[in-house]
Structures are given as C-alpha cells and as structure tokens.
Design a protein that fits this description.
about 450 residues; alpha+beta; Aminopeptidase; Alpha-Beta Plaits; six-stranded mixed sheet; four-stranded antiparallel sheet
Amino acid sequence: MTLHDAVNAVLPGVVSELAELVAIPSVSALAAHDDDVQRSAEWIADRLRALDCPDVRVVAEGGQPAVIARFPAPAGAPTVCLYAHHDVQPTGDRSKWSTGDPLVVREADGRLFARGVADDKAGVLVHLAALRAFEGRPPVGVTVFIEGEEEVGSPSLADLIARHRDELAADVYVIADSGNWQVGQPAFTDTLRGLVDCVIEVSTLDHALHSGQFGGAVPDALTTLCRLLATLHDEQGNVAIQGLGSMPDPELDYPEQRLRDETGLLEGVRVLGQGSIAGRLWTKPTATVLGIDATPVADASNTLAPSARAKVSVRIAPDADPTAALAALTEHLRRHTPWGALVRISDGSTGSGTTIPFTGPAAEAARAAFAEAWGVQPVFMGQGGSIPMVADFQQAFPDATVLVTAVCDPDSRPHGIDESLHLGDFAKACLAEALLLSKLAE
C-alpha cells in the first residue's frame, strides 16, 4: 500500500472523529467551559494512546491543559514536533449559524461547518491522520503537542516550554494553525504580525447631567471617547499612531476585488489605507476598536454620560517590538484626548510577531511534500493575525526549522459565524504531512 493509499484509508474515520472533537465546546476563554477543555484534552490523549504511543501526558502549568505525546525516533532519524491547539472561540449568537447547532458538524458543498472545525481541531486531526497512515510507527521521531489556550494568547505556553523543554525539543516544528492562499493552493506562512491592546476610560464629569440643561457647554464622555478613537486613523484610513513602523510590502498580489469578495465588504464601502493590500493585511500596523462600554441605545436617556471606555487592539509589523508599540499606542491616546478629559489606560495583552525563514533541507522536504500532495507548488504568504507561540518556539529552539502550515482557506471564517473546512483541502493537508514525515526520514 502506498502512502497515498494509507492516508485515503484513514480519512473517513478521521473526518468522523473530527465531528466528535468539535462536539466538545472547549472554549478556553470562558471558565464555565474549563471541564470541556479538560475533556477535549483527554479525548486527544486517548486517540494517541490508541496508536500505542508509549508516552502520552495531559499537562498544565497554571493554565489550560495541553497534550504532549512522544513517538521515539528510529536510530539516526530526526524528531518532528507536530503542533495544533484544541481550544476554540465561543460560538457567538447560535441563531445566526445557517447550519444549525454550531457544535454539530454539517456538510454542504464540499465543506464541513461548525465552531472549531477549521481553527484548529482540523489541525489536530491532520496530525492524527498522518500518524495513523503509519499505523502509529512514523519513520521519524514525532512529538505531538496540542495546546489548550491558544485562543486566549497562550499565557502559560512559556512555562510549558520551560518545564517540558526536553520533551518538546525537536529538529522540525510543524505548526498547523494558519491559512492557505486559496482553495487548492497551499501556502507556508512566512510572516506574522504581533499584537498589543489596551482598555481606555475617558471621564469628563463626576456625575451624569441633563443633556438639555448643560449640553453645548459640558462635554459628555462618550462623544469625547469617539473623537479620541477617531484619531487612530487619518482620512485615508492609514493608522496614525506614530512610531509603529512597518515592513516592506510582500511580493504576492492581492487584488482589491478578491478582498471584497472574500470579506463581503458592502458596495460603496472603501478599503482602508494606501499601498499594497497584501502589505496592509500582513506587514503594516492596524488599529481596531474591539468594543465600547456605554449606555445601550435601549436604555438611553437625555443624559451627559460622565465616563465611557473602549478596548483598542493594534496589530503590529512582524518585526516590531510589542513593548515599544504598546508605549506608542498609550502615548498617542494620552496626547490626543480632547477637551482636557481625564483618561485612564489599562494595558492588556502583548504578543510578538515574527518572520519565519524557509531555508534548509527540512524546508525543501516540506516544499516537495506539499507540491506532491496538492499537485501545485506552495506559495509563501503572511498572515495578519498573530500566533505568538511561533516566536516562542523560535526563541526556545533557535536551531530548529519552524514550518507554519494551514488547514484554513479564505472562506473558512475562523472565529466567525459559519466557520468551515474544505474537505478536499483537508485531505490534501493530511497527505502532505504524511509525505513530509516520510521525506524527513530519507
């Protein structure tokens, strides 16, 4: 039986088990789901034990549980660490899912729909599929590392790596948590933006006032906050925070019409910023208002609000220093607060971006494996999102090759309503990883 045949043979069971894993609502951001995150980790550990893996552990270092499983390397063979994460985002408003219950996988038009079916439980099952194709006896050493808190910024990952460094050490890291260029076209991610955020509270009064009696002379906090948030961009939509910096534009052409088609941008709405769209998405900073605390419209009265607050998120260039970027954001907000209002800024999370070199024998083996599995050459692209753990692996294991691979495509909608996985691309991702393990053994 060829390796292609072996992967095809295990795929039906893998797809079925993907639905089982999706049914566990392993939402790491909500304490109410802590038991589900634990159950998800145990589910994965059980599947690895079923492959006769001699060393399977569920571990935690002050955070959500992760799974570490180790298949020993044959004599002279390298060790490959296969990474994915089993935690997911909340489902959001379940009534908006066109496929029904977001924890029950539905198939339509060659895609599976459910929360976490792409991000990143498909990554978990890609690893299981590759190992099953070798009947649990891969031709290289394999360490499976399935994290449980990637969706909340991997806060305990550094401690996990420090405490389990020897178990996680490898020659090659395959991080199956990114996006492909398009359906049928695989990609390796070579840049990732970093992330900083903060909560800003603006106060103008020590108590609420009648808007008719004092409006026109006394500023309300919500209007003040809106004016402040508007300073984050210039008139063209470019980020106006000084000191953030950017990297050169990528070589890939990202047409505006493709962006409109992929995002559902409404007719007449302009694209933000200037220059290359790929650069705006992958190598330049962004500024986003994630949420505002203020009086809901349903409860609104003719009142001048004394205070209001917002959460602001800034994606930074892959090579930017997150500490310096957070300082630049904070300084911008303080400097641009209008009308002498009082402002209080609470620092939030930070995460480093990174560039990911694609060089050396392991990288070339990956290129050949993916070209064989997909029938086309892979491309190299950035991701606007942040995967801080990539930089953590690079720093902890600087001599290793890090490969960031994908299970998502532009229609997958990770984190959103109707998240989905393309079944054809999933099968190719499983084959590509199995071929990669085989080629790394040669």
